[in-house]
Design a protein that fits this description.
The protein is an all-alpha fold. 70% of the residues lie in helices and 2% in strands. It has a two-stranded antiparallel ribbon. Strand 1 and strand 2 form a beta hairpin.
Length: 216
C-alpha cells in the first residue's frame, strides 16, 4: 500500500474507531439521545449529518485560502447553515414523517461541535481529498453510533427493527427503552463496552510489546 493510500485509510478509519465522535470524543450527545428511539431515525440523522459534514468540508477546504482568518468561524457557520437548510427542506419534502420525528434537531446541526470542529481542526488545514476522507470517516462513525443505539432501543422497546416485528405476541416491550431514560441507559452501556474493549486491546498490545522486547 502506497504511503498516500495508507494515510487516507488511516484518516478514514480514525473517525470510525480511534476518534469516533460519540464513543471517544463524546460529541453530538443531544441528537444521539433525543432522536434514536428507532433505527430509521438514527439513519436519517446520520445521513443528514454526513451530507452536511462532507459538503461543508469540501467547500471549506476549497476556499480556505480565500477566507480571511479574522472571520473564518463566521464563514464556516454560513457554509454549514447552507447545507443544513438543504437537508431540512429536502427531508420536509421527501419524508415529512421522519422530518417531524427529528424536529428541531435538524436545524441544530449548524451548532454541532462535530461539524464546526472538523472545519476548524482539519478541513481548513488540509487538501480537499483529505478533508473529504476525514469527513466521510467521522460521518460514518457518527452514523454507526446512531444506528446502533436506535436499533437496540427499538428492538427492546418495541420488538421491531426498522418497523419490522421480530418477536411473537408473547414479547413484552421494555417501554423505558424508547423513553429518554432508555437512551441514557443504552448509551452508558455502549460507552462502557467501548472503553472496556479499548482497555483490553491496550493491555494485549503492551503484553505483545513486552514479549517481543524479551525475545530481542
Amino acid at each position: 500500500m502506497a504511503k498516500s493510500e495508507k494515510q487516507a485509510y488511516d484518516e478514514f478509519i480514525k473517525g470510525i474507531w480511534r476518534e469516533n465522535p460519540v464513543f471517544v470524543q463524546v460529541l453530538g450527545m443531544c441528537p444521539m439521545l433525543a432522536v434514536t428511539n428507532s433505527a430509521i431515525n438514527g439513519v436519517a440523522m446520520g445521513l443528514a449529518t454526513c451530507f452536511v459534514l462532507v459538503g461543508s468540508s469540501f467547500l471549506v477546504s476549497l476556499l480556505k485560502n480565500l477566507i480571511p482568518k479574522q472571520v473564518r468561524i463566521s464563514c464556516f457557520i454560513i457554509i454549514i447553515a447552507t447545507f443544513v437548510t438543504v437537508v431540512d427542506y429536502s427531508l420536509l419534502a421527501l419524508v415529512p414523517a421522519i422530518h417531524k420525528e427529528l424536529g428541531a434537531f435538524i436545524p441544530l446541526i449548524v451548532a454541532k461541535c462535530l461539524i464546526l470542529g472538523r472545519q476548524e481542526a482539519f478541513a481548513s488545514r488540509n487538501t480537499i481529498r483529505m478533508a473529504l476522507i476525514d469527513a466521510l470517516g467521522m460521518a460514518a462513525g457518527f452514523l454507526i453510533a446512531l444506528v446502533s443505539l436506535g436499533a437496540i432501543r427499538e428492538i427492546l422497546g418495541e420488538g421491531k427493527l426498522f418497523g419490522v416485528p421480530l418477536f411473537g405476541d408473547n414479547f413484552e416491550p421494555w417501554v423505558i427503552m424508547i423513553l429518554p431514560p432508555g437512551g441514557f441507559i443504552t448509551l452508558g452501556f455502549m460507552l462502557l463496552f467501548f472503553n472496556w474493549f479499548e482497555e483490553k486491546k491496550k493491555r494485549l498490545d503492551e503484553r505483545a510489546a513486552a514479549i517481543e522486547g524479551s525475545d530481542i
